[in-house]
Design brief:
Blueprint: H1 2-14, H2 18-30, H3 35-45, H4 51-76, H5 81-84, H6 103-117, H7 123-139, H8 145-169
Helix pairs in contact: 2-7, 3-4, 4-6, 4-8, 6-7, 6-8, 7-8
């Protein structure tokens, strides 16, 4: 954990500023409750040409939610950095729940990786947004770097499985 705090403290000491203090809470809000990714999945599901990708994103998000919020977070029950170091003022309300893994990061990478595996034209912007959302959790001092890494890995796994399941359901074989 000292390594985690060293990174967080470096971010607080080197990167904090008025512009990022304004911008980063808005970036992280895009990942609140996975809303942006749920809306993307719903929009993709509306059109026959993108329906399979919408189903892949939806499946990945559902798998990530179950694994992260219903199993891993309660099992690990890791406190958030803001709970262990109250000296850093939060720019957002303290999130509910435990710290590991980062659900914002997990859902973002689940959606982005499902799009990536399916070779969607949205894969690069989705990946960029996923990276920004993950980094925002560090800037805001609500997750440790290892929480974000755990969310990233969980997101990659659930994104892969979500896309694989829909590929099989659509009878497209096992590889993209």
């Amino acid at each position: 954990m000292p390594f985690d705090f060293a990174i967080l403290d470096w971010i607080q000491g080197s990167l904090r500023g008025e512009f990022l203090d304004f911008l980063v809470p808005r970036i992280t809000a895009l990942g609140d409750h996975g809303t942006i990714w749920i809306l993307l999945a719903a929009a993709l599901l509306l059109f026959p040409k993108t329906r399979r990708m919408g189903a892949a994103v939806a499946a990945a998000l559902l798998l990530e939610f179950v694994a992260c919020d219903l199993f891993i977070k309660p099992l690990i029950a890791r406190p958030r950095p803001c709970d262990l170091n109250g000296a850093v003022g939060l720019l957002i309300p303290r999130p509910n729940g435990h710290s590991f893994p980062s659900g914002h990061t997990g859902s973002s990478f689940a959606a982005a990786f499902a799009l990536w595996r399916g070779r969607s034209p949205l894969r690069i912007p989705a990946l960029g947004l996923a990276v920004l959302i993950g980094l925002s959790r560090l800037y805001l001092y609500v997750h440790f770097p290892t929480d974000v890494l755990g969310g990233l890995l969980l997101g990659l796994a659930t994104g892969w499985v979500g896309e694989w399941l829909t590929r099989r359901r659509w009878g497209l074989g096992d590889t993209p």
